[in-house]
Amino acid sequence: MTRFAPLLAPIAALALAAGCDPYDPDLGPTPFECGGDTNVCPEGYTCNTDIDVCEKTGTGATIDAPAFTCENDRSLEPNDMPNNAYITPIPNARPDYALFGLAICPATDTDHFRFGVNVAGTNLEATVVGLSSRASLVVELLNTNGTTITTGAPVDGSPQQVKIELPNRLAVGDYFIRVRSADDTENNYNITIKTCTGALPCE
Q1: Predicted TM-score (pTM) of this structure
Q2: Which structural domain range is residue 43 located in?
Q3: Residue % of the chain over a pLDDT of 90
Q4: Which helix (H) or strand (E) holds 25?
Q5: pLDDT, position 54
Q6: Cβ contacts of 54 within 8 Å, gap of 6 or more
Q7: Could you say which of 65, 84, 118 is where a domain stops?
């Protein structure tokens, strides 16, 4: 055995220099097929006999989902409270406004958007469209005291689309649209805010 020592020493030195362990116990989500009488799988894996594949113990038939990717809306943040809400150009520059590529991230995030009313009895239409793979977002209209005036409802057939429609109700002043998660999950969304003095829906 001693005559092999000069050969083994450089190999051991290379392993130490690389700073890694050549053995990795993680074989991936479904490394081997299984089945038959024994249903044998490597340690840490269980045979799913429905599809005859070894899976990580505890995962069932579902491979771990990839991490959620949030849209980058840092240019609007922070807008977590009414006093630092994103200020829309409504009504001074135009009666409506839209923003795209926004995110409720982290899941506890809330977004506020301020708009104004300069004619008593103005109608409001505010629409938020989130991802169809996620629960509907919560959309609320607040007054300057932060009190909720009304809450939007999912549109029939498109639950990811949540809308507030308020006819002939708003007095002159400032208001806020608040967007948040209903189930503590992250979501991406677009928002459109429209005001008008004619009949809903606003043009």
Answers
A1: 0.69
A2: 26-65
A3: 64
A4: none
A5: 78
A6: 30, 31, 32, 33, 34, 41, 42, 45, 46, 47, 48
A7: 65
